[in-house]
Design a protein that fits this description.
201 residues, five-stranded mixed beta sheet, alpha/beta, globular, 6 helices, Purple Acid Phosphatase, chain A, domain 2
Length: 201
């Protein structure tokens, strides 16, 4: 079984969900793969990775916080409905850019049951948010993505004349990360006023 396809794809750029608010306090997370037992072997995760991720989410995220999940919430069809009910109870206003494993279910309503509002991959403030890393298109300066799992580098890296930030959860200590933290590491201004003045936020 091939778990991770590291192919860099051409960007599909859609429109950000109108109810999603991005600022330095927004939480970003990707590739939780809740319920995926074999990922312990494939990616060297701890055996209790589900509990670690759930506990971190509950400890960090407040009910009024915005959470953007960059894809692959859960994995196996035998458990995804159960995990949808569990994820629905997690705090935060949850939005999802669908990953390659999120569209494989015959039950297409599970994302709603999990409490997610689905958004297309989108560009915000010259930053492209997507599940898979994408080929530079001139429409963005930085691509924040998941999908790569434990294929390093995590966080900021340069490739193909583009700047990328890999938030696959194995490299994030199994926790969501504030967008402000990411912007700081990228050397970008994360002040809300600058975002408002840009006309993007």
């Amino acid at each position: 079984m091939v778990l991770v396809d590291l192919t860099i794809n051409s960007a599909h750029i859609g429109v950000m969900h109108p109810d999603l608010i991005l600022n330095e306090r927004t939480w970003i997370i990707s590739d939780t793969h809740f319920g995926h037992t074999n990922i312990i072997k494939y990616c060297g995760r701890p055996f209790n990775h589900n509990e670690i991720m759930l506990d971190a989410w509950e400890d960090l995220v407040q009910p009024a916080d915005y959470v953007l999940h960059l894809g692959d919430v859960t994995m196996w069809h035998r458990t995804h409905r159960t995990w949808a009910a569990t994820v629905k109870e997690l705090p935060g206003k949850k939005f999802l850019i669908r990953g390659n494993h999120d569209d494989q279910w015959t039950d297409k309503q599970w994302m709603t049951r999990a409490g997610f509002r689905v958004t297309d991959p989108f560009v915000w403030n010259r930053i492209y948010f997507s599940h898979t890393p994408s080929i530079p298109s001139g429409m963005w300066d930085v691509n924040i993505h998941g999908h790569a799992h434990n294929h390093k580098p995590y966080r900021k890296y340069e490739m193909m004349l583009g700047t990328y930030y890999n938030v696959s959860i194995e490299g994030m200590d199994y926790k969501p990360v504030r967008l402000g933290t990411i912007l700081d590491e990228l050397g970008l201004d994360n002040t809300p006023q600058d975002m408002i003045q840009s006309g993007i936020a």
